[in-house]
Amino acid sequence: MRRLEQLAMSGVLISCLWGCAPTPPVGNNSPVADEKLQGEEVAVLTDAPNVPPPITRKHPTTVRVNLEVKEVESQLADGVKYTFWTFGGKVPGKFIRVREGDFVEFHLQNHPSSKMPHNIDLHAVTGPGGGAASSFTAPGHESKFSFTPINPGLYVYHCATAPVGMHIANGMYGLILVEPKEGLPPADKEFYVMQSEFYTRGENGQPGLQPFSMQKAIQEKPDYVVFNGAVGALAGDNAVKAEKGETVRLFVGNGGPNLVSSFHVIGEIFDTVYPEGGTTANHQVQTTLVPAGGSAITEFKVDVPGTFILVDHSIFRAFNKGALGMLKVSGEEDKRIYSGKQDDLAYQGEGGAIQEMPDGKTPATQTAKSKAERISLGAAVFKQNCVACHQDAGQGIPNVFPPLAKSDYLGQDPLRGVNAIVNGLSDEITVNGVKYKSVMPKLTLTDEETANVVTYVVNNFGNPGGEVTPAQVKKIRK
Ligand SMILES: [Cu+2]
Fold it and tell me: What global pTM score does this model have?
């Protein structure tokens, strides 16, 4: 009898009398005591960069979340594959959106094809392990547990099955937004951006299916740092879009497993940041820290059109490891806010352009009278304009700046060198069997200087020789 009384008091018996309704009773002094649940619904879950619609309800409800764990092989970078462990089939995991005080009935399914058991630790859960122990699920099984998110904010969730680091490193993380009761201020566009790193057996770019490297993960030396699960997942055709005048809200998460992100949007200032995904706002922020296993909400109005680059401002991660995304804004220019390039004038330092040579000509207008003279004048142009990137002996820097020494690309046609200088070069090119997908900015050299430097290069560094004339440069320039 005593036991029955206890059960009755704890509510188990009572709720079962009502047909085992999912809602358990409220404890003494519970923060949810004054909240009456009304109705029930199934949560809309989305893949990045999409976010479920804002919650307009004015009351808490019972929300069923169905999340399926799947181990899938897919692309990590161009030609590089990886076996990702996912919440919902993609990295990062599905975005979950609930309201503060909702009663969340969580169903975690582990697909029968999985090789591993998995679970979920939601940072939005108040309770031991964030749900981890209650959700431990073998392949081909489903676990259920319930919780009430009593703290509003943007939270990371992740797998917490041992070895935890390995499950996270393989892609097991996502975001859950607990909207405050009063809702978030309206925004025109909302996007889901999550940073994380990958540790592969092969070096960055090594093609094929790459296994996870536990050693590199322990040393915290990732080969890839990416947004939304793969290099380029948020760039080029996958860029997110907005229109001038719109307010953009980014729900930014960091799955880690190791690195802290210095999240920045090039060419924008965050009007508002909710640091660490909490409810206090900072304003006028350039770069915000997003801890591993943490988040931030950033908001900004886009005032001018163009492509805005999302980066981890630990900048080698952006340009060399993949942590680069794009927001493309369309609309009319506002030249007073941003002019675009207005002038491109030659600048030669103190007196450079004015000082006259003994023969009465400035260096820029000096013309070569022979091929030998062209080569010797070209050497000076080379030192001033090319060595910074292509290096003293034209050897370049592996994977960054292609070699000019014994370059088969240049060797096939010296005018390719002219084109690179006059027009810049951003296409993918192959030099001596190595692919480069980088950018050489166009340089402001005269026709004479361009002819001289290319003639110098093709007659040095083991190249086959030849001559380029200013007339040829002029033709390519137009
Ligand atoms: Cu797992």
Answer: 0.67
